[in-house]
Amino acid sequence: MNLVGGLALYFVIWWITLFAVLPFGIRSQEEAGEVVAGTEPGAPVLPGLLKKAVITSLIAAVIFVAVWYVWVTYDI
């Protein structure tokens, strides 16, 4: 696996992992009782995107290392 292929694979893993991490810990405005006039009641109160990006990066790195190890070990 060359550098460009590795970066592309990490990006795909990161993106898929992001969609898995996004729903964790979300409270809607309706659940929090803080619906702002003119907004969707299902909109999140505090999405915490920076924290989720860091968590996504760590999980994606672990998955990438596992995939890379299998790739190198079995010479795929």
Low-confidence stretches: none
Number of helices: 3
Q: Nearest-angstrom radius of gyration?
A: 18 Å
**Number of discrete domains:** 1
Total number of beta strands: 0
Tell me the structural class. Answer: mainly alpha
Report mean pLDDT, rounded to a whole number. 94
Distance between the termini: 9 Å
Helix content: 55-70%
Largest sheet properties = none
* Tertiary shape: rod-shaped
Question: N-to-C SSE series?
Answer: HHH
Strand % is under 5%
Fold and architecture overview:
With 76 residues, the chain is mostly helical. The protein has one domain (3-73). 63% of the residues lie in helices and 0% in strands. It contains 3 helices and no strands. Helix 1 (3-21) crosses helix 3 (49-73). The longest helix is centred in the last third of the chain and has 25 residues, at 49-73. The radius of gyration is 18 Å and the shape is rod-shaped. The termini are close together. The model has no long low-confidence stretch (mean pLDDT 94).
Write a brief structural summary.
This protein has 76 residues and is an all-alpha fold. The protein has helices at residues 3-21, 29-32, 49-73.
Offer a few descriptive terms.
76 residues; mainly alpha; rod-shaped
Please describe the topology of this protein.
Elements (H helix, E strand, L loop, with lengths): L2 H19 L7 H4 L16 H25 L3
Helix pairs in contact: 1-3
